[in-house]
Specification:
Layout lengths: L18 E12 L2 E12 L3 E5 L6 H9 L10 E4 L2 E5 L2 E2 L3 H6 L1 E4 L11 H6 L8 H6 L4 H14 L14 H15 L3 E5 L7 H18 L2 E5 L3 H7 L2 E6 L2 E7 L5 H8 L13
Length: 277
């Protein structure tokens, strides 16, 4: 599933202008708990990266901070997306909205509007580039309609385009969410536990689709996963967090059982769906 690794892994893999995201000395505090503690990492364009770690390790907080959905602590922390600063000194910047348009967000609970058809949900991906009234009245341009159907066909759910989203299976809804990101014109996919609510067969199909987008389209993919075996199987690079700090950043093949036990502690046995390392 993984392409051959051409170069050694490091925190800084490409220049900041080419990076999907560059995170420098970022912290986030919730009450007395440090969800992120001085995190610095860079993900280059075209990479397929898994964020792993036990519950509360900070992986979802890191992903949400990159998109600006979660503000970081004030201080020297800086986050850039495709070379544009989106967070600095604890505040989002004016570039955040434009940066989000380049990032397709995939969530555990799909974030589809249940009463709308799958087609209408996918069309919502076009809202960022259209006047508000067109979206409100559903006056979608013909080119965007064609793009939506092509995206649905690509992810394998075009037969369900007219069906209400809340009548579809979890796997079908998640593939619809990926189609929405394609219509959005995203340059990278950020997926937060995208397979956690799916059965293993549907989960594999979703992960294989993300791999295809990465390898065929060159889209950067950052995915948080609780399933370590999926991270190792589908991603070239793995970043592991524990107590808000990065404790491993390197090739998926470099992780061994001893390291994973140290990372996950008592959660180790629950961190695999199918096979252990």
């Amino acid at each position: 599933m993984r392409r051959a690794l051409a170069t050694a892994f490091s925190v800084s893999m490409t220049s900041a202008t080419a990076a999907v995201a560059s995170v420098k000395d970022v912290s986030k505090t919730f009450g007395a708990r440090k969800a992120l503690n001085g995190v610095s990492v860079e993900v280059g364009a075209g990479e397929m990266v898994a964020l792993i770690g036990p519950s509360g390790s900070g992986k979802s907080t890191l992903l949400r901070s990159i998109t600006g959905l979660q503000t970081i602590d004030s201080g020297k922390g800086v986050i850039t997306v495709f070379g544009e600063c989106v967070q600095k000194n604890g505040r989002t910047t004016g570039a955040t909205r434009a940066a989000r348009q380049k990032l397709g967000m995939i969530f555990q609970q799909f974030n589809l509007v249940g009463r709308l058809s799958l087609f209408s949900n996918v069309m919502l991906g076009a809202l960022g580039r259209l006047p508000g009234w067109q979206g409100f009245f559903g006056a979608w341009p013909a080119a965007d309609k064609q793009r939506a159907m092509a995206a649905l066909h690509r992810v394998g759910v075009s037969d369900y385009a007219a069906q209400r989203a809340n009548t579809l299976s979890g796997g079908q809804q998640q593939r619809g969410a990926i189609a929405r990101a394609l219509v959005q014109g995203a340059k990278a996919i950020l997926a937060d536990e995208p397979v956690a609510s799916l059965d293993p067969v549907s989960a594999r199909k979703v992960m294989e689709l993300l791999v295809e987008l990465n390898q065929r389209d060159g889209m950067g993919v950052i995915v948080t996963l609780h399933q370590v075996d999926y991270a190792i199987r589908y991603c070239e690079r793995v970043i592991a967090l524990k107590a808000g700090q990065i404790v491993y950043d390197g090739p998926a093949t470099g992780l061994d059982t001893k390291q994973l036990i140290d990372i996950y502690g008592p959660e180790f046995e629950d961190a695999f769906w199918e096979t252990k390392v």
